[in-house]
Design brief:
Blueprint (H helix, E strand, L loop, with lengths): L1 E8 L3 H15 L4 E6 L3 H11 L3 E8 L11 E3 L5 E4 H5 L2 E6 L7 H5 L6 E4 L2 H10 L5 E3 L20 H5 L3 E6 L5 H9 L3 H16 L5 H12 L5 H8 L3 H21 L4 E4 L14 E3 L6 H8 L2 E6 L10 H8 L3 E5 L2 H6 L1 E2 L2 E5 L7 H9 L2 H18 L2 H9 L3
Parallel strand pairs: 1-2, 1-3, 3-6, 6-7, 7-8, 9-10, 9-12, 10-11, 12-13, 13-15, 14-15
Antiparallel strand pairs: 4-5
Helix pairs in contact: 1-17, 7-11, 8-9, 8-11, 13-16
């Protein structure tokens, strides 16, 4: 029986890029690849119905894309509610990678596609799934690094010290800027009692940023509702994304500002950084626009240090770290349990402390004064990432569950 793997395109750009690199890996192993165009799901569903019979088919998707009642992929009941998916009708297994906390996907996880398997990119997230959605098989699948286009299977060669020293960007950060006021507007529209409760949780996370998100929120929910059930807890968590976004945005802004105001020039690739208040804006060099995943990888390939702020993954990793390693830049990041199990400080990842951001400029400055040591770290990082942290490596892990 021939083997068919389905990926989605024309949705979230980063997720399509991840998928494209995995698709290259699977295609090299004689899997047939089908791309479901999210702009034409009806046509895609029709094509799938022609292709799938007689084949062993698997959907590999991210963030419940294709599994959330999309038009063309689901039949509707008399009330107009999605009730039966093409995946179930055609016997297609669904492997669903959640690149965010499961609380963002409360509705599709409450009514999962039969036979769906979930992968979380943080082990805390996987524990959350096993507690609140025990009926859904779940595993841990770390994010991976992005290669430049065409290099997913054979990443480019490492640069010599002489080449590497010529890189034009001392510190690179690939992310958009989101003004906190945009998130606060949503929170401040709530009733005062709810607004104050959310900000109490936010301030607790800011004071003690080593906490994982759920443990902190659970403490405050149980204080208010001692008898809350797990079902009630899961429902309440689905209202908390603004808390997550506020805290991660706060530390992203604070980290970049700490470097700039400490005299370290940061080249930021993403939109709206000119809106960030900073007493030394001359140290923030912005490309002035959003860039795609390939552009982010190219920017890191021109940088010596690649800054990362974790999106509150306390037992996982962000793809920026592995992308930096593949592009032979030194990752400078806050830590997580998973990262510290896999990489010692200065070998090849460099860690900073969210509670001691005043020390960050000195740490970055010392690195930049030692180019030979940085080149050695970056070269080791590239080798490790090529061996263990390509999307092709994650394809290996998924293939074991086909």
């Amino acid at each position: 029986m021939s083997r068919l793997i389905i990926f989605c395109k024309n949705g979230v750009e980063t997720l399509s890029y991840f998928s494209a690199q995995m698709a290259q890996a699977f295609a090299s192993r004689d899997y047939e690849i089908f791309w479901l165009d999210l702009n034409m799901t009806g046509l895609g569903a029709w094509k799938l119905r022609q292709m799938v019979p007689g084949k062993e088919a698997v959907l590999v998707t991210f963030n419940c894309i294709g599994l959330s009642g999309e038009e063309g992929l689901w039949e509707l009941d008399d009330a107009g509610m999605a009730c039966s998916s093409i995946w179930e009708q055609l016997g297609i297994r669904c492997l669903n990678i959640l690149a965010d906390h499961p609380m963002y996907y409360y509705k599709p996880l409450r009514h999962p596609v039969p036979g769906m398997r979930v992968y979380c990119i943080d082990r805390d997230h996987a524990a959350y799934m096993k507690r609140f959605y025990p009926q859904i098989p779940c595993g841990f699948l770390p994010l991976a690094g992005n290669c430049l286009p065409g290099e997913a299977l054979v990443p480019g060669q490492a640069e010599s010290l002489e080449q590497w020293i010529k890189r034009p960007y001392p510190v690179v950060f690939t992310a958009n800027y989101v003004p906190l006021a945009n998130i606060e507007k949503q929170l401040r529209s709530l009733e005062p009692e709810y607004r104050d409760f959310y900000f109490e949780i936010i301030h607790a996370l800011v004071r003690h940023p080593g906490q994982d998100l759920f443990s902190c929120i659970e403490t405050y929910l149980r204080r208010e509702m001692p008898d809350i059930t797990d079902e009630g807890m899961c429902s309440a968590m689905s209202t908390m994304p603004a808390v997550d976004l506020w805290v991660r945005t706060h530390f992203r802004e604070k980290t970049v500002r700490a470097l700039a105001e400490g005299g370290i020039t940061v080249h930021v690739f993403g939109k709206d950084w000119e809106q960030m208040p900073c007493s030394h804006p001359q140290h923030i060099i912005s490309c002035g626009r959003m860039i795609d995943s390939a552009g982010c990888a190219r920017a890191m390939a021109q940088g010596k240090i690649a800054l990362n702020t974790m999106p509150w993954f306390k037992d996982g990793a962000h793809d920026r770290i592995f992308t930096a390693m593949l592009q032979q830049a030194v990752p400078l990041t806050d830590a997580s349990t998973y990262l510290q199990e896999n990489f010692r400080d200065m070998d090849p990842v460099v860690y900073y402390d969210l509670e001691k951001l005043e020390e960050l400029p000195q740490k970055a400055g010392q690195l930049l004064q030692e180019p030979e040591q940085m080149h050695a770290l970056a070269s080791r990082g590239k080798s490790l990432a090529q061996q263990h942290h390509l999307w092709a490596c994650r394809a290996d892990m998924l293939e074991a569950d086909f």
